[in-house]
Specification:
heterotrimer, A mainly alpha (about 270), B mainly alpha (about 300), C alpha+beta (about 325), A: about 270 residues, mainly alpha, MetI-like fold, 2 domains, 12 helices, globular, C: about 325 residues, alpha+beta, OB fold (Dihydrolipoamide Acetyltransferase, E2P), five-stranded antiparallel beta sheet
């Protein structure tokens, strides 16, 4: 009797299970429909169920130069923004994670602000600043915007790793005769490596499909999300849009999965050492 | 072995504040000048005003734009509509997100927890636009929901819901109800993770203590678990609330013709060229969030992050 | 005797908190020296100053008569075993132990033989390829020791190295540490808050309190002749009698400390001692080979011991009135 009661308490109730499963389905089912729609033969509406299935839209997209140009621009922007964010975010994390000085909290706030404030405010601010400074729109204006809000992603990952690491690691290395430079290359970098990489991956995913800030800093250029947005507002090529959406899902899932794979490993070892 | 580089690194070791400064300088210059600079310049525009005749911005300090913002009933409508939507979305996300967070924190094995993490992280980081687009497919008149309800012979129910004032509309994809669904869907992961983190910190012994003291499962939930999860819910709502306040794309794609703050900012800076009014509109979400964060902080939301 | 370490007038503040207040300390070569005190008493800060991780605000640190105050840690011939061991999580046991040899660019073959030797000394042969996360607490502790000892430092600093281990393992490691110190014949400076550990292992002990050193002495002397009330109370069990109470009850003109084993429980036939007190038993604690008896009489609180005798049955009960006594030779005068 007692045993049964205990078991009952340690198991989730049916309602909770249904709620959790419903939530997970709610998060994921919509994406399956996009994949389904990429194969539909219907090209004028979002008719469900699709009247037939075809692969032709994929081959049509393969031949679309404008889409490939947009993909190229987006990749270029994401790559350079991520690299800048890695440098800036790691530096900020190294400086701020343990230090205590006047204004530290304000600087932390400043790093978080670009993703905390609505993208439209960041976007318009940068746009008008470029206007005032007489900087013409270019790939670089997009990159400046992206690096600004990607920085915090790298920063968060690196700070989390620094907090989890033993504060004595650096001291231990110096104690064993390594100078600052050796300590940096032998201890700090290998320890932060996966955190930086994971942060970079997420920053890449974030930059690759960012649209709001980009709208204001791109001028006449078309990144993939901007192309997508224009199709969302005025659908003219539904089947093409469906295929591009699937493509974006694939491109962003890879770095996200990779990033969580890397950080999962570290939480595992941390857990076992406790 | 002593090189100039080594001497320099020793110097830095002894003078840690200089090292700190060297680290901090690049990100600080970037954010301070490029970001904060443009932000302040833009927001400061709310103290200028647009000349009605020439359509040009007058660079004189004045409160006329801010007064204009709050004196026009249309603008007040926009502000209230947005804040109400943001609150409802936060509530919806908390209700849908809580079971996942609770199940994840208390009833999973480590392996299943990793699966749950992934299931939440993937939508969190993956494309915003694509996820909005997926709902355009789902909510469309000829889309899945209509088809599904028709199969269940419930088309009348959908029509009845769409006929409701305020939340209804010609189709789900042009209604507040649809907009609420999409917003909740898009920001849901931001709500789940902080709730999960705060529940994770509730020791199981506490829950067992409640049972031990004679509380039922339901009583334990309302008297122990929910209050302790509150900081997590507050933290999550900071995200859902703020993200909804500033968004202009979802109302643009799913919404009706009535504006939200984000759209107002977009339109005023763009076609209307009224940067001062756009800036004044932008101040509202910032101010609302500042107040919101102040109270959330009192609830302990930041410990749950 | 060679002075391994000398601290002269070391002061250190963190913001407004005084961590070290005019510390003077001399430690001889080959000594097992403990820095003992409650947490926050400054003992760990003192160790960090010796290791070079913290710069003193003023004062001098000398190692073997050489002023090293401004020398960075990686150039000091001392090594530290950290409280959390600070093993590099991305390296296996071998790489951790080998780290300093790699830094010194010692030839590979020599590295290998040295690592093999030191790992066998700390009984970790066979664990070379394990990651720190795959080791038990005791094994990590040994890796940390091996990593430091492979340098053959003149001084080894140990920051509460046994704090994370359970009691049995701790007692075993105490013996091993002592053996290692004899084997390597180097100076150990050992930070701990466990008085039992300090008393049983050390040649000499410095008692820290509130950033100051209260007493430096051998374990024996510290126990028998504590100089201050803090030391008397911190080391072992004692009964403290204030100056006022001593004057009133015993007509004695100093505050004093009396160890429980020196307080006798009188039988009627016992001759009178120099100090006598009538008390009531307030608590009896069974300690295995003896009972600890807590007694009270108005403001006076005394603790004494009663050894278990197989022949006699225990007959002191809570609330009993007892007559306690001791002699002047048993007490230690302290500054009140």
């Amino acid at each position: 009797m007692l045993f049964r009661k205990k078991k009952n308490l340690n198991e989730a109730s049916l309602g909770l299970k249904i709620g959790a499963i419903f939530g997970i389905l709610f998060l994921h089912v919509p994406l399956f429909f996009i994949i389904l729609y990429a194969f539909t033969t219907e090209d004028k509406s979002y008719q469900f169920p699709p009247p037939g299935y075809t692969l032709k839209w994929f081959s049509i997209v393969l031949g679309r130069e404008d889409i490939w140009n947009a993909v190229g621009l987006s990749l270029q922007v994401a790559l350079i923004s991520t690299l800048s964010a890695i440098v800036l975010g790691t530096l900020a994390a190294a400086a701020l994670f343990k230090a205590s000085f006047f204004g530290r909290d304000y600087i932390t706030l400043l790093i978080i602000l670009p993703i905390a404030l609505p993208g439209i405010i960041t976007g318009i601010s940068l746009r008008s600043a470029f206007g005032v400074a007489g900087i013409p729109f270019s790939t670089w204006t997009i990159i400046i915007g992206h690096a600004t809000f990607c920085m915090v992603v790298v920063y968060n990952n690196v700070v989390a790793r620094l907090r989890r690491s033993s504060p004595n690691l650096i001291q231990a290395s110096m104690d064993l005769g390594a100078n600052n430079i050796q300590t940096f290359f032998y201890v700090i970098l290998p320890n932060l490596g996966t955190a930086i990489l994971a942060g970079g991956m997420l920053a890449f995913a974030l930059s690759f499909d960012e649209v709001i800030v980009t709208t204001f800093t791109a001028g006449q250029q078309t990144t993939l999300p901007i192309w997508m947005l224009s199709e969302l507002i005025r659908p003219r090529q539904r089947p093409i849009t469906n295929v591009v959406a699937v493509f974006i899902i694939c491109i962003t899932f890879i770095p996200i999965l990779y990033a969580s794979y890397m950080t999962r490993n570290t939480t595992d070892t941390d857990g076992s050492s406790k | 072995m002593t090189s100039a580089l080594e001497d320099f690194s020793n110097y830095l070791y002894r003078n840690k504040h200089i090292l700190l400064l060297l680290f901090l300088l690049p990100p600080l210059l970037w954010l301070g000048i490029i970001y904060l600079g443009s932000l302040i310049v833009f927001l400061f525009h709310s103290f200028f005003y647009l000349d009605g005749f020439t359509g040009k911005v007058v660079y004189k300090i004045s409160l006329s734009t801010i007064i204009e913002l709050f004196s026009s009933p249309a603008n007040i409508d926009i502000l209230i509509r947005t804040v109400v939507l943001a609150s409802v979305v936060s509530l919806g996300a908390a209700i849908i997100g809580f079971p996942i967070a609770y199940y994840m924190a208390k009833y999973t094995t480590p392996k299943i927890k990793v699966f749950f993490y992934l299931a939440i992280m993937l939508p969190l980081w993956s494309s915003y636009l694509v996820r909005v687009y997926s709902w355009k497919l789902i909510l469309a008149k000829e889309g899945i929901i209509s088809w599904f309800l028709a199969k269940l012979h419930l088309t009348w129910l959908l029509e009845a819901i769409l006929a409701l004032p305020v939340i209804g509309g010609p189709s789900l994809s042009i209604s507040y109800l649809g907009m609420f669904l999409v917003f909740t869907y898009i920001w849901l992961p931001f709500m789940i993770l902080p709730i999960q983190a705060s529940l994770e910190r509730v020791p199981n012994s506490l829950i067992n203590a409640s049972y031990d003291l004679g509380a039922t499962k339901r009583q334990t939930f309302y008297k122990v678990i929910l209050p302790l999860a509150l900081p997590g819910i507050a933290a999550g709502s900071i995200f859902t609330f703020s993200l909804t306040l500033g968004d202009y794309i979802i109302p643009y794609i799913i919404g009706t013709s009535k504006f939200f703050i984000g759209q107002a900012v977009y339109t005023h800076q763009g076609t209307a060229g009224n940067i001062p009014l756009a800036a004044a509109f932008s101040l509202v979400p910032i101010a609302v969030m500042a107040v919101y964060i102040y109270f959330a902080k009192k609830l302990g939301a930041f410990n749950a992050l | 005797m060679i002075k391994a370490l000398e601290l002269k007038n070391i002061n250190k503040k963190f913001n407004e908190t005084v961590a070290l207040d005019k510390i003077h300390l001399e430690i001889n070569d080959g000594e097992f020296f403990s820095l003992l005190g409650p947490s926050g008493s400054g003992k760990t800060t003192c160790l960090k100053v010796i290791g070079g991780f913290e710069q003193p605000d003023s004062g001098n640190v000398s190692l073997f008569n050489e002023n090293v105050t401004d020398i960075p840690p990686f150039k000091r011939n001392v090594n530290t075993v950290f409280q959390d061991y600070a093993l590099f999580p991305h390296m296996n046991v071998e790489e951790n132990v080998c780290y300093s040899l790699k830094i010194k660019k010692i030839p590979k073959i020599e590295q290998e033989s040295q690592v093999e030797e030191i790992l066998s000394t700390v009984k970790l042969t066979g664990y070379e390829k394990r990651k720190p996360s795959e080791l038990s607490g005791g094994q990590r502790q040994r890796v940390a020791l091996a990593r430091s000892l492979i340098n053959k430092p003149k001084i080894l600093l140990l920051d509460e190295p046994l704090g994370a281990l359970d009691l049995k393992l701790r007692e075993q490691m105490q013996i091993e540490l002592k053996n290692l110190q004899r084997q390597f014949q180097i100076t150990f400076i050992y930070v701990t808050h466990d008085q039992q550990e300090a008393l049983s292992m050390s040649d000499r002990i410095a008692i820290f309190n509130d950033g100051k050193i209260e007493q430096v002495d051998t374990p024996d002397n510290i126990y028998k002749n504590p100089k201050t009330a803090f030391v008397a109370d911190f080391i072992g069990t004692t009964s403290l009698v204030s100056k006022q109470l001593a004057a009133k009850l015993f007509n004695y003109n100093s505050a004093f400390s009396i160890r429980p084993e020196n307080i006798k429980i009188n039988n009627e036939q016992d001759s009178k001692s120099e100090f006598n007190a009538k008390v009531v038993v307030t608590d009896i604690q069974f300690q295995g080979s003896y009972y600890k008896i807590l007694c009270k009489a108005n403001d006076l609180t005394l603790t004494t011991l009663h050894y278990v005798d197989k022949q006699k049955t225990f007959k002191i009960n809570l609330g009993d009135s007892l007559e306690l006594s001791w002699n002047k030779i048993d007490i230690t005068n302290i500054n009140d």
